[in-house]
Amino acid sequence: MIEVKDNVFALHGEATTLLLRVNEYGLIEHLHFGERVDADDAEAFICRQGLGWGESVLLREGDTASCPDAMPLAWSNPGRGDYRESPLALAGQPADFRYAAHEIVAGAVPMASGLPQAHGDAQTLHITLTQTNAELHLYFAIHGDVLVRRAVIRNTGDVPMTLTKMMSSLIDLPGDYEMTTFDGGWIAEMRASTVPVQASRVVNESVTGFSSHRHNPGFLLSESGATEDAGRVYGFNLIYSGNHYAAAQRSLQGLTRVVQGISPEHFHHVLAPGEAFETPEAVMAFSPCGRAELSRRMHRFVNAHIIPPHWQGRERPVLFNSWEGCMFDFNHRKLVALAKDAAELGCELFVLDDGWFGNRNDDKAGLGDYAVNRKKLPHGLEGLAKEINALGMQFGLWFEPEAVNMDSDLYRAHPDWALTDGYAPLLSRHQLLLDLTKPEVRDYIVDNVCAVLDSAPITYVKWDMNRHSIALGARAHAYILGLYDVLARIFRPRPHILLESCSSGGNRFDLGMLCYGPQVWCSDNTDPIERLTIQGNLSLLYPQSTFGAHVSAAPHAQTLRNTPLCTRGNVSFFGCLGYEMDLGHLLKLEREQIRDQIAFYKRYRHIFQFGDFRRMHSGWQVSGEGVTLAAMFRTLTHAAPGYGTLRLTGLDRHTRYHLSTMGQRLRIGQFGSLVKHVAPVNLDPNGLILRAADRLITLPDGKQDMHLSGAALMAGVRLLPGFRGTGYDENQYTLTDFGSEMYIIEEENTNAES
Ligand code: GLA
Description:
Layout: E1 2-5, E2 8-12, E3 16-22, E4 28-35, H1 42-45, E5 88-89, E6 98-105, E7 124-131, E8 134-143, E9 146-155, E10 161-163, E11 165-174, E12 178-183, E13 191-196, E14 202-205, E15 219-222, E16 233-238, E17 244-250, E18 255-262, E19 269-271, E20 276-278, E21 282-287, H2 291-306, E22 319-321, H3 323-326, H4 332-345, E23 349-352, H5 380-390, E24 394-399, E25 403-405, H6 409-413, E26 431-433, H7 439-455, E27 458-463, H8 476-491, E28 498-501, H9 511-514, E29 519-521, H10 528-538, E30 547-552, H11 565-572, E31 576-580, H12 588-610, E32 612-616, E33 619-624, E34 627-633, E35 645-646, E36 655-661, E37 665-667, H13 688-696, E38 698-700, E39 705-709, H14 710-715, E40 717-718, E41 740-751
Parallel strand pairs: 22-23, 22-31, 23-24, 24-27, 27-28, 28-29, 29-30, 30-31
Antiparallel strand pairs: 1-2, 2-3, 3-4, 5-11, 6-7, 7-8, 8-9, 9-20, 9-21, 10-19, 11-18, 12-13, 12-15, 14-17, 15-16, 16-21, 17-18, 25-26, 32-33, 33-34, 34-41, 35-40, 36-39, 36-41, 37-38
């Protein structure tokens, strides 16, 4: 809902308001973004300059209160008295945009450039500012509690205009903040780092051509000391998959300026007379009470306004992916055998990963080609898909359409279709990218991918991209527009296909890709202990329904860590569950455990994927439909553990709940020579008897079962005692390093007296 009172605009979300005003100089002042207030409250948020700031530049001689450098703004003119971070650069020329008009539009205003955008029926405020040779259009809308805004600049003069920087958003927030960014690389995504925002700029930027795992476009600004449940926190993001930029800077007057948009590095856009440039949409949310509420607002926004409508609230299948189990080494028979195993365990979708086409027997050849490799798949994709469907499973397929190997039929026919920068080509994973700025390249990809998709019953696509950087220079934005064009042409007519994007894991985990497909493969690192960081930090800004989360083999391929199967499951449950390992190597007891895991996940899948997620000390909880699922994760075990406590949040204090544990089984082998303490004979820990027993026998671990109030659960429930070296007992937890436990807390029908 949008209120306009005199020169004040109030955009209301459910619990949030954005207040703007047009000041007497025609600049758009940013008065407030935070708690819900009224347009009538605008007076309370005006920053009064009084007798001014001494030597500053004034917009009107004699008016000491007209210093743009000290105004809280929602847009600013470079070179005209405001020397903080500027939102645009017109090849070194100053700008002087002033308010000209506004309108309120029903729903979202469609993008003209082909960029993806948030959908929903919130009203949009459109403010037009003008200067002698250009128009600037600012669009604002609040979806749920999330502000979405963008800017469009149009050349209304009669000579070309050069843009070297054009941000989506600028905002000045009163107060001091810390900025948390999420940085990393391959198998090391989403490592948080926090720095105070001071007078020098703090920058979160990607210049690789993609949103990147080096610096995710999402970030936080928090009051110092903010926690999960206390303190003012702002979250920011960009609906864009290319080079991004955000900077925060604190002014002398105590305003924290934040700009967000496309990275200005290599950005160079010439606007002919009459032409316009449109920025991606910037996203911003606020929580008055810590990170958990911020996440909840962002999650609802992504689930309702970003992901394709077909997938809103729609449960994702449990999948089996062939990659880690087979790599490039498979054939029809092996895949069908794996699929049989996967179906028998409860998987619903079988995904054939890399290696099904061209001469692709390793990663040195074949990218760019689409002919099915008949040596591996003599019955083609159709024959394979039919057999998989007959097992009751859907069939999905991997593609990497943006890339080309020099050893491919495509490259031999069209070497000029590969992106080059005029120097000798630099390969990454033996590949180049295709030039998606060329219409014929986009047509080639669309025609080939569509032909494959229509040749067999394919209901899932993993869209990979394994170059981490491209030398695109000024063409970076055009490349991303080309990618969006390709994705729209392939997937908009096929909304039923579940698109999971991937870029060596999380190298392109962003809101732009999520507008086309509802999931992203968030990391090639499936070690569950590492995933606590990756998924945990992603969850600050993205909902669990957007993470592909797979159980893989232990010891783990990237860390060599040997993690119990229960922990691998318990971590992957908080996302879209999949399995990715050689099922042929599983022990019977592991199969049984996986079957139980999948059945458990299916029972609570809607809550795991779409419920309210909270991070706890040493664990995660998710709630919905009267059920809370809480996992406690142990990293390192200490001797003589004290009394453990499970403390939940967000329950109804008067409701009665039943708490139970999922329960896990302990492998005999994990006790090694300690078995002598319980066995009548002294057994060799490396001997045949114990090795055989380890494959067949498990012991139950402690189980907790109680009926209690929400108040007690939020005060903290004492857990069973932990193993202390005094013996094994079914009524204690015998969790080892990296062990975990899953608690199920279900509402009972009776309400306790308050
Ligand atoms: C990338 C992906 C993996 C897998 C391989 C296949 O590394 O992240 O999941 O699909 O490519 O080559």
